[in-house]
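Researcher: Good morning. I'm working through a list of sequences from a screen, and I'd like to move beyond sequence-only analysis. For each chain I'm collecting a predicted structure so we can compare shapes side by side. This is the next one on the list. No need for commentary yet; just the structure.
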Amino acid sequence: MLTDGRQYWSPALKRWVHLDSCERARDQHLLYDEGWGKKQSYILAFSIEGAQDVTKGYVQDWESTLQRRQRIGESELGRLLDGVTSRRRAHLDPKFIAQLQEDDKTQRLFLEGEPGHRGEESLPPRQSGTAEWKAARGEDGMKILTTVCWILTPLYT
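Model: Good morning. Structure tokens for this chain:
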């Protein structure tokens, strides 16, 4: 299953912040994994300045997630995303590139943090939609549904 998501780059936090307007959720990265029971495999963020695998920020159990990630090797995925980032930054001002690299470091630190230390409390199952619709989509917190998520978010600075 391929889904999309919404995030924005927070200059204050220097990281991507999760948004879900239907659920009135902000910065609840584990909402789909913990609250809804969706076991996502790949969550990739794309902006005009690069691409990044942000999956670790959205899953509680990274080891189980790695078992589901069979479409591409981890090092190959990293090389592909680094290539996208390099191409998108190739013609930018070196000072701006240095700033983006610092932002990348901050984002990596967030992704490497313990999921329980991301400031999230107990997360509910999906709130929007009928019970039947949520159950059919595996978003009622009752089923485990493996998904691939691509975050296509233009970044305007």
